[in-house]
Specification:
Layout (H helix, E strand, L loop, with lengths): L8 H22 L6 H5 L7 H13 L1 H10 L12 H13 L8 H8 L1 H15 L19 E6 L6 H8 L6 E2 L6 E5 L8 H4 L3 E2 L3 H10 L6 E4 L6 H9 L5 E5 L3 H14 L4 E4 L16 E6 L9 H4 L5 H6 L8 H18 L7 E6 L8 H13 L2 E3 L21 E3 L8 E8 L11 E6 L4 E5 L4 E3 L2 E8 L7 E7 H13 L5 H12 L24
Parallel strand pairs: 5-6, 5-8, 6-7, 8-9
Antiparallel strand pairs: 1-3, 1-4, 2-3, 9-12, 10-12, 11-12, 13-14, 15-16, 16-17
Helix pairs in contact: 1-3, 1-5, 3-5, 4-7, 5-6, 10-11, 15-16
Length: 539
């Protein structure tokens, strides 16, 4: 009995490509894909990755043409039910557009036997479309695809940049990025997944755009920093490196599967100043002894991912062409749901008591997830003493001009070299630095612009003091506050104590008197509507 012949490299690539295409196209049709094309190809089970990726990508690139040719040649009507259509897609690509085509199994024999009909169908299609070359049948955007460079970031927690460069340049062509510290560029066809420096955490496979949010946050070395939606952890360990392994980075992640990846990333990177938290960011207690010390927050929440289509190769999927003229077109209802979550998360990040810098970032190209989210929370941010910062000034492309101040926002246009990204930086005004751990400004009636400041004790707010006065009888869980200068505080408070002025009318009288003594720029902490003779609403 003859032993089975060993599968050749060509056979292996075709078989794996057809199998991957089956999964990719099924996931795209059912909107159930949970991994990108590149992720699927770089699975450990896939051998001969370079040839397999080329075959998958080229077949997807020409898929509309291949489908029309096979239909016109009536090839699929004659195929056996035992064979998958993706095998025919791969074989037809090889026959029409590959360098050479040699049949290695029965499906390829089947296609090769009908090569005259297939080639004639392609010729008729080219005449119909009035083109002289098959490449002209493709959309212009698909003529060139895939990254032109590969980015890798040196993990300074484990190795110096100069040392990493010395080791890489022994065998590879490497350049140093002129913006992101420790970021290197290599030719796109270099596969570093199994490189020793990647496996031991000295190098992090991270795109340039993905490096910008941490760079914009620019935390100080001794700060407590929160990475709100941390997995897979590349930005987390970048923050740890920017802080030189000092301070503390709290990495929050809720998803059970993604947090395992986060733990692995942190461990391999040697980021000892990172503490992983398996929690829902929106349910964190801002008064927790550790969380109440957070000085900077990186918020990169769930988004449509529409800016990553070139890196993920999603622009090759049929749905990308059918659903939108923008790369990575997605369902409008889904975008709105994401935007609602993003607004909630950003407001929560801005409510941390002593946070000084908050970066909001997405890998989306959609205005609804970017400028519109920032615009929606601006009033809340201003009420909490924040303004928009101008991150990475040397970056030329800024936000869409949809509101005043949008030029402070940062955009990265998706391309073959970089993912599409969006960054907004919120900085607390130095004149409104809150020293309390539990100060929270809540806007509960936007129509009437009514505010209460809620705190458990007198706290400094710039040159003013927020003083707890009394709880409303109707709203037993709320407290009314007055705001006064330090000069007036002693006399006012003694008057308040001596007369035991616990009645709401007396408090409002004091507020009326006090309001006229405050400069206009600080009066935002004292609402005009509180001056009216009415009970305050509950908060």
């Amino acid at each position: 009995m003859k032993a089975p012949r060993r599968e050749s490299a060509v056979q292996l690539a075709r078989r794996q490509a057809a199998h991957l295409l089956r999964n990719i196209l099924h996931g795209d049709t059912t909107r159930s894909a949970n991994a990108s094309i590149k992720t699927l190809i770089y699975q450990p089970s896939i051998r001969n990755k370079k040839a397999t990726m080329a075959l998958v990508c080229q077949t997807l690139k020409y898929l509309p043409v291949i489908k029309e040719v096979l239909e016109n040649a009536e090839v699929l009507k004659q195929k056996s039910k035992m064979h998958h259509v993706e095998d025919f897609y791969v074989a037809t690509y090889e026959l029409l557009f590959g360098k050479e085509f040699e049949a290695t199994k029965d499906i390829e024999d089947f296609v090769l036997a009908r090569k005259s009909a297939i080639r004639a169908a392609l010729a008729r299609l080219m005449v119909k479309k009035k083109v002289s070359r098959a490449e002209e049948l493709l959309p212009a955007a698909d003529c060139n695809f895939g990254p032109r460079v590969r980015y890798v970031r040196v993990n300074s927690l484990k190795i110096e940049v100069d040392k990493a460069l010395e080791m890489l340049r022994e065998t590879l062509l490497v350049e140093v990025d002129d913006l992101v510290p420790g970021l290197l560029t290599l030719p796109a066809d270099i596969d570093l997944h199994t490189h020793s420096l990647v496996l031991n955490g000295s190098l992090i496979l991270q795109g340039k755009a993905s490096c910008l949010p941490a760079l914009a946050l620019a935390p100080e070395a001794d700060w407590v920093v929160l990475d709100a939606c941390a997995a897979p952890g590349n930005k987390t360990v970048q923050l740890a490196a920017l802080m030189q392994g000092r301070g503390q980075v709290l990495a929050c992640e809720l998803n059970e599967k993604r947090i395992k990846r986060l733990y692995e990333t942190v461990d391999v990177a040697g980021a000892s100043n990172v503490k992983v938290m398996h929690q829902d960011f929106l349910k964190l207690d801002v008064n927790d002894p550790v969380l109440s010390q957070v000085k900077a927050i990186l918020l990169d929440p769930s988004c449509s991912g529409s800016g990553t289509v070139y890196r993920r190769l999603d622009h090759l999927l049929p749905s990308s062409a059918n659903s939108s003229k923008e790369p990575g077109g997605v369902d409008a209802q889904r975008i709105q749901k994401l935007a609602n979550f993003q607004k909630t998360a950003l407001r929560f990040a801005l409510s941390f008591p002593v946070v000084e810098r908050v970066v909001y970032s997405t890998c989306s190209v959609h205005q609804q997830e970017n400028e519109d989210v920032v615009s929606a929370v601006l009033d809340f941010a201003h009420d909490n003493g924040f303004r928009l910062g101008h991150p990475i000034p040397q970056w030329q492309q800024r936000g869409l001009p949809v509101f005043e101040g949008a030029t402070n926002l940062l955009r990265v246009k998706p391309s073959e070299e970089m993912d599409g990204f969006f960054i907004a930086l919120f900085e607390r005004n130095s004149s409104v630095t809150v020293s309390s751990d539990d100060l929270l400004l809540r806007k509960y009636n936007q129509e009437n612009d009514e505010h209460y400041i809620i705190t458990s004790a007198p706290v400094n707010v710039g040159h003013f003091v927020v003083l707890p006065v009394v709880g409303s009888q109707k709203c037993k869980h709320s407290i009314v506050f007055i705001v006064c200068t330090l000069t007036d505080l002693v006399g006012l408070y003694l008057d308040y104590i001596s007369k035991k002025a616990y009645g709401l009318g007396r408090i409002l009288t004091l507020m009326r008197w006090l309001y006229g003594t405050l400069p206009l720029d600080s009066a935002s902490y004292l609402n005009r509507s509180i001056m009216a003779d009415k009970e305050p609403q509950c908060v």
